[in-house]
Amino acid sequence: MAAPLAAPAKEPPLAAAQVRAALLRSADWQLANPRRIETTDWIIAPMYDGLLHAAFTTGEPRFAQAVLGFGNQSGWSPRWRYYHADDHAVGHAWLDIYQLDPTRKERLAPLQKTFDYVLAHPVTEALDFRNKSPKTPGISFTDRWTWCDALYMGPPTLVRLYRATGDKKYLDFLDREFRYTYDTLYDHDEHLFWRDGTYIGKTAPNGRKQFWSRGNGWVYAGLGLLLQELPADHPTRPFYVKLFLEMTDAVVAAQQPDGLWRPSMLDAKHIPGGEQSGSAFFTYGLAWGINHGLLSKKKYWPAVERGWRGQMSTVKPDGFVGFVQPVGEAPDKFNETSTQLYGTGAFLLAGSEILRALGGATKTAPEKILAAAQAAFDADRTPRAYARLVPERKDDLAWENDRVAFRIYGPALRASIEDSGIDAWFKKVDYPVIDKWYRDDIHNKVSYHKDHGEGYDAYGVGDTRGVGGLGLWRDGTLVAADTYRHADVVWTKPEVAEFVVAYDYPELDGRTIREKRTVRLKLGEQLNDIEARFTVDGKPVAGLEVAVGLVAQGKSAQFDLQPNDGRMSVWETIDGKGLGVGAVFAAGEVRQMKRTNLAGKAHDGKAKSAEHALAILRTDADGRVRYRAGFGWSGAGKIADRAAWDAYLADPARAPAPMEATK
User: Fold this and answer.
1) Which InterPro entries match (predicted)?
2) CA 519 – CA 472 distance, rounded (Å)
3) To which H or E segment does residue 71 belong?
């Protein structure tokens, strides 16, 4: 547990330089040590909030540049569950950035689309964690803000959406849903929130009510983020201010002498030791209240100072933030090695507000800091592996490394012929190009189907398997999924790009068949690592036959099928340069390989067949198949000819291996 500070009779006042240095250390440490998590997950959202606050208080553009990168990878979108508040939490950061540069409409559109759908199809049933089977068909008990953490996730995004659009419908929705949660979960005696309906009336071991510190920390910090953007004349602002003030005294009363809060707010001995994340959210809220004139500095600054000193007892000299309770919903154990992104984010939020209070914040306007971050982001040509969602181009998902680039197609193309095939983009350069190519194609009418010096997209996919796409193999016929249902980009180091996509297949005898596909591309590689997991009615299915395909672009393509060696390839010439596509499988996993024509359609709706190399596999006991697939283009200077391509695929280093799970 976090060791209590050995408090002298009088502590020296906090120093702005020391607070600033602590912010820089922890922000830099966290960015240098990615956690494998979806870039739109709620767990990472507070980190984005903290990085932006740190950037705009320290004047360091690199932290804003990092959030620009995350936003770009995420397509400036919330996560894919329309109603779930957790999936709205990244909207704080996306909209804070948009408001500083409202010329970039692509940073507003995805969030506006999501909430416009929610507001047009509101959930009105009284939902509660105590009833996990709502009456309304198709909804979940979490489709309203039925747990207190949601008051950090959703409301700050909605108030920023109002600020960005001027449309009060977002505030009306915010007020209605917040009030619903308040009426259900707020305890008017203790001025704290129950975590959810299942905890109402529960007591801690000492007999007092059990209130979770991080859950209330979410609410308290969320109120700061909400009130910061809520108009001064908004009719319900007094309600939120009153709630903030009521909670403040309850929060301060629960602070322990070491400056930290215990997981169980009213029973310090329940889970001994100070917990970092809830404590940081409380410290942020207190400092924010002082900075914005809601709290008396004379009365509450001592609690802020104690809180910051307590925070520093949880942080290692290199900036690692520990003593963070893991993901949960109630007081639980933790130790000095327990860490999470929301803990680091809350630390950065708290430190940024304290730096402002100490007069140590930069005088540079946030707009200028963001502009410097944007310029650095745009100018960065460091070779890296990179994946991103592209909602502005029909929901594409594109990814690349220093050698190759790919894309798959999303829900906006559901009515077109494109489905779950994999497209190939030919690169001549080692630096990232997909952002530039999309931007030039969409905004400058410079087509990426023509080579302007960096490469181009000359590969046709349509409804074929493309470069290693797959489908079910039923009675000698390939059954493909449509475009992906939803997708997540995963935070990785620059040496690896990774994402996860979900596909739905046509029902079989009334059973629902789904595929969850993880794709990973490493720097310096020509091939993707692909792991596909199939379920039938939600359960993994073993022995399901699937087919992996490579499509030929012309009639002169040369096929090489080596089922015993676990590899297949197609070599041909496009625009005078050689192209090899290929797939590699673990020894003994291929049941059959074949060269065959698959029926399909052209964009004009007419029937069209495409010649494929197919490998037939069966899923393992966990419903999985694993393989590697990709291409080599002679125009890139890495793969000169067919012999070089065959040798590349035959190298034992190309053999697929199991992937570790995300998170």
Assistant:
1) 6-hairpin_glycosidase_sf, 6hp_glycosidase-like_sf, DUF4861, Glyco_hydro_88, PolySaccharide_Degr_Enz
2) 18
3) helix 61-73
Q: What is the CATH number of domain 381-654?
A: 2.70.98
Per-domain residue ranges for the chain?
Answer: 21-377, 381-654
Question: Of all helices (H) and strands (E), which one includes residue 444?
Answer: none
**3-class SS at 485?**
coil
| C-alpha gyration radius of the chain | 27
Task: Give the per-residue pLDDT at 649.
Answer: 98
**pLDDT tens across 553-612, in order?**
999 999 999 999 999 999 999 999 999 999 999 989 999 999 999 999 988 889 999 999
Helix H, strand E, coil C: the string for 385-435 is CEEEEEHHHCCEEEEECCCEEEEECCHHHCCCCCCCCEEEEEECCCCCCHH
Rounded to the nearest angstrom, the gap between the alpha carbon of residue 545 and the centroid of all alpha carbons in its chain is: 32
Least confident range from 19-23, 467-471, 508-512, 522-526: namely 508-512
CATH class of 21-377: mainly alpha
Cα–Cα distance between 643 and 61 in angstroms, integer? 48
Distance CA 302, CA 293 (A): 16
Residue 128: per-residue pLDDT:
96
Angle at Cα 534 formed by Cα 651 and Cα 77, nearest 5°? Answer: 90
Asked if residue 18 lies in contact with residue 480, where contact means CB atoms within 8 angstroms, the answer is no
pLDDT digits (tens, 9 = 90+) for 113-122: 999 999 999 9
CA distances to 487, 501, 550, 603 from 461, in Å: 20, 18, 10, 11
Residue 657 pLDDT class (50, 70, 90 cuts)? confident
For residue 2, pLDDT over 60 is answered with no
Does residue 663 carry a pLDDT above 80?
Answer: no
The 8-class DSSP code of residue 131 comes to: B
Inter-residue contact 385 to 497 (CB < 8 Å): yes
Mean per-residue pLDDT for 435-439? 97
Structure tokens at 327: 């993901």
Q: What is the pTM of this model?
A: 0.96
Which ranges of 427-532 would DSSP assign to H, the alpha helix? Answer: 434-443
Backbone phi, psi, residue 273, to 5° = 95, 150
Torsion sign over Cα 350, 351, 353, 357: positive
Q: For residue 382, give the nearest of 51, 65, 629 by alpha carbon.
A: 65
**Nearest partner of 49 among 29, 22, 27, judged by Cα:** 27
Which residues have a catalytic role annotated? Answer: 149
Q: Residue 613 and residue 611: Cα distance in Å, rounded?
A: 7
Return the structure tokens found at 552.
Answer: 């030929």
Would you say 533 and 451 are in contact if contact means Cβ atoms under 8 Å apart? no
Token pair of 262 as six digits: 């215990």
